[in-house]
User: Fold these one by one.
Assistant:
Number 1:
Amino acid sequence: MSNNSNLFLSIGKPIKDEYGRIIGKVASFALTPSGKFDSVFIEFNSGQFSKQPMEHLKFNGAEVTFISKITSQANVLCDQIPLIWRKNQALKDLAGKNKISPDLYQELHNSFEGVLNQLKKDAQVITDEAAAEIADCEEEIKTLSYAVVNLELEHEIGQVNEEAYKSAFTMLQDTLKRATAERSALELTRSKLSNILLGDTLQPAQKTKTVAEPINEANELPEPPVVVYVKEIGKAGI
């Protein structure tokens, strides 16, 4: 049995998204023959069941958090793209120092380039999905803002009593904060991916090492392009 057998205690427990909204509950787990947790079955609030990879969920005691596809895949891409770029650059350095044959260099270089191109395509897909989600968040924030204004107006003229007003106002403000936090997180994710792609596009213009330069005694890989994460001006932050 897996060392994570206590995860069975989360069956029936609510699942929240990254922004605190309850989206469903844990229905069951799928395990490999060796007892390793492979995936989790989720009953969403709509009544729909779905099988999700374990890496899409974070377990912290009784709390279960669902990590969105955009967040989880963006995190992987932000790690993999700079790593493959560094390996490709290190390969060029080795070829420049005549430490590998031209044929072997070309074979490995083509392999790295193929992987890197696919990762960049995946990153563009996630960037586009994040942009669509941001647009949805902005529409939700606009609707919530109108709802707050209308609640204030009706309360001001006495159409809504104090108790109902406070309850509705708190609900709207909490939802508005979650929507704003989600938009900010998506904007940051989009910015990180865009800057990593931009850094990779600009990297050929950077100075590369030559054979005459000293060998790094620690055999460290070259640093990837410098990436500066910039939030767009005028967007709400968290």
Number 2:
Amino acid sequence: MQVEEFQTIHRCLLSLDRSLSFLRRKRLGLHDKRLVTRINGIKDSLLLVKTNLMQVGRKLGLIERRYSGTAIELVKDICFDIDYIHSNFKSMSVDLLEGQVDLIRRMLASLEGNIPMTLLELQVDVPDLLDRLPSAIRAEIAQDFAEVQKCYEVRAYRATISFCGRIIEVALGRRYYEERRKLQPSVKAFQIGQEISRLTIGQIIKRCEEVGLQTAYPGLDAYADLVNRIRVSAIHHKGARLFRPGPNAARGMVELTVEVIKDMYAR
């Protein structure tokens, strides 16, 4: 699986190789006035490599440090080397620039060997989401998101989708509890818990409709219902063909789950 930023970086490195090969073949230097467009293209490619690396660094910042720490340091090192090239470009020869680009390529290979690619593909700003949630369910949903990431990392996509369904179930159940208490303050917490303890997501959605959540958050029931239907098709056997979700379906499910939570607990 490929991360978009790395695809762009590799395209830029190929462009740099072609430009440097042209200069070497024609025995031209980096400061030939006839080559302004080509030289600017070299500089632009280097800048684009750095821009995409910085974006990778931002994404890595959303992943636990124990998975991403080495990769983040490598990103910083490569960006430092690119800055060095730009600062010293006027005094560089083609040979020296080729050596620097080769160094960047080797560091990039090391980066790709250390980076948690699957987690990088699955970008969830968990701290931001947890900050939105009431403390009563924060720890539980944090644990579920950790399971989502583990499942996705080992390509257990059906399990990923299953945990997404559980996250929605917990969040919806809490939202129902909050609205129910607003409408009927005298009702006890354990009574509400008993009401929804054995309900399916679909049934919890119906309860949420009864307390007016679909009016307060337009589309919430449709979102949650879609999550539930995808979960059911992935987990439960219906008919001769079982839905076997791939990485795109799993990522889409996670993104949908995140949107449902943001709708329910907008800042």
